[in-house]
Amino acid sequence: MATQRILDFLATRRPEGPCLVVDLDVVRENYQAFEKALPDSSIYYAVKANPAPEILKLLATLGSSFDTASVAEIEMALNAGATPDRISYGNTIKKERDIARAFELGIRLFAVDCVEEVEKVARVAPGSRVFCRVLTDGAGAEWPLSRKFGCVPAMAVDVLRHAKTLGLDPYGVSFHVGSQQTDLDAWDRALADAQAVFARLAEEGIVLKMVNMGGGFPTRYLRDVPAAQAYGQAIFSALRKHFGNRIPETIIEPGRGMVGNAGVIKSEVVLISKKADNDNVRWVYLDIGKFGGLAETMDEAIRYPISTPRDGAETEPCVLAGPTCDSADVLYEKTPYPLPVSLTIGDEVLIEGTGAYTTTYASVAFNGFEPLRAYVI
After folding, report:
1. How far apart are CA 225 and CA 68, in angstroms?
2. Residue ranges per domain, the chain?
3. What is the pLDDT of residues 251-287, one digit of tens each?
4. What CA–CA distances, in Å, run from 92 to 118, 121, 130?
5. End-to-end alpha-carbon separation of the chain, Å?
6. For an engineered disulfide with 356, which of 49, 124, 188, 360 has Cβ 3.0 to 4.6 Å away?
7. Cα–Cα distance measured from residue 356 to residue 30, given in angstroms and rounded to the nearest whole number
8. Three-state SS at 43
9. pTM of the predicted model as reported, rounded to 2 decimal places
10. Which residues, at least 6 apart from 101, have a Cβ–Cβ distance to it below 8 Å?
11. Which architecture, in CATH terms, is 24-259?
12. Across 155-279, where does the E strand assignment appear?
């Protein structure tokens, strides 16, 4: 739901065009909820979710560390007040010169998922800590992140062994159970794999110290999701189950779960039409679509809550689409979206839960539409 602060901002400022408004109070509450749910884990905010300077500064002040995917994101975190020891270069696909630049900036913690990446780190960031990402199945996630990143556990053993021979510090393993993960058992399966890597390397005298449990913590969209406390309890139980009393250092990387519910996009209905006189489904076109920041509607993976000034009236199923001259710019068609019959051209609608992965997914100027403007209050 849009907070009163967001509603007041929109009512008084009346910003032109589609825009995202983020309430920092919600971000603060989310950070504190993660701290309470997993008090023994370090929080590394996934900068890619929303790199607004105001969000990064707030989180740095609260004591957060940062998961970054590029040199630019590393510099954003540093500019926000984070020290290099609170920054992880968590992308497993890095140019060698970018690793060198990160090392120059003081970064000493790098993600890898193959021996080739280990060799790059060893050449230009000698002595650094590396953690190897292990593949997970991503079952239960609305936005899976498997296949492109990570390697099977047996290969992770080889990767970390190779890191040791090249003078790096084989620090631990990481996994990502998939974004918007609603299955509490997902971490249990992944931690079993992590423990297997720990055990295998321990036999060779290589003692890993850290498990990076990634992100995946969800935002409430149309369906209820478990609270941070439920995730914390499930993860701690899984840690005890697989590691006993020798629980390693742990990291979590919330992105969506930190900022998703803190933001609301204000949009306007541009057109409502039908494709035939006997068509029983209306097409509702908004002034924002896939290319304006709603890329996560791809395959209708993320279904955002939408509120209108006519809520409470009779509804009917609508196809929801964006404004661009691209046939891919359709948000919801397979499963039409129920919207008020009385909805009309010019009505403003609020797309809720849009604080994450919207400004960063917006195109620069496709069809001449400006990038999604954002206000942080």
Report:
1. 26
2. 24-259, 261-376
3. 999 999 999 999 999 999 999 999 998 888 999 999 9
4. 10, 11, 10
5. 16
6. 49
7. 13
8. strand
9. 0.94
10. 71
11. Alpha-Beta Barrel (3.20)
12. 169-174, 179-181, 210-212, 249-252, 263-273
Per-residue buried b or exposed e for 170-199, using 16+ beta carbons within 10 Å of the residue's own CB: bbbbbbbbbbbbebbebbbbbbebbbbbbe
CA 360 to chain centre: 11
- Nearest Cα neighbor of 270 from 289, 251, 252 is 289
* Torsion sign over Cα 28, 34, 40, 43: negative
Residue 228: partners with Cβ closer than 8 Å, 6 or more residues away: 30, 33, 34, 36, 37, 217, 257
Per-residue confidence (pLDDT) for residue 128, from 0 to 100: 98
Give the strand pairing for 109-112 and 65-68. unpaired
Answer for the pair 51, 360: CB distance below 8 angstroms, yes or no.
yes
Give the tokens for residue 83.
């020290």
User: What CATH class does 261-376 carry?
Assistant: mainly beta
Catalogue the active-site residues. 325
Count Cβ atoms within 10 A of the Cβ of residue 364 and give its class: 0-12 exposed, 13-18 middle, 19 or more buried.
Answer: exposed
Look-up of token digits 């679509």: 289
The answer to whether 265 and 6 are in contact (CB under 8 A) is no
pLDDT at 24 over 60: yes
Average pLDDT of 39-57? 97
Q: Do the beta carbons of residue 109 and residue 127 sit within 8 Å?
A: no
Two structure tokens written together for 285: 């076109």
Contact 323, 286 (CB under 8 A): yes
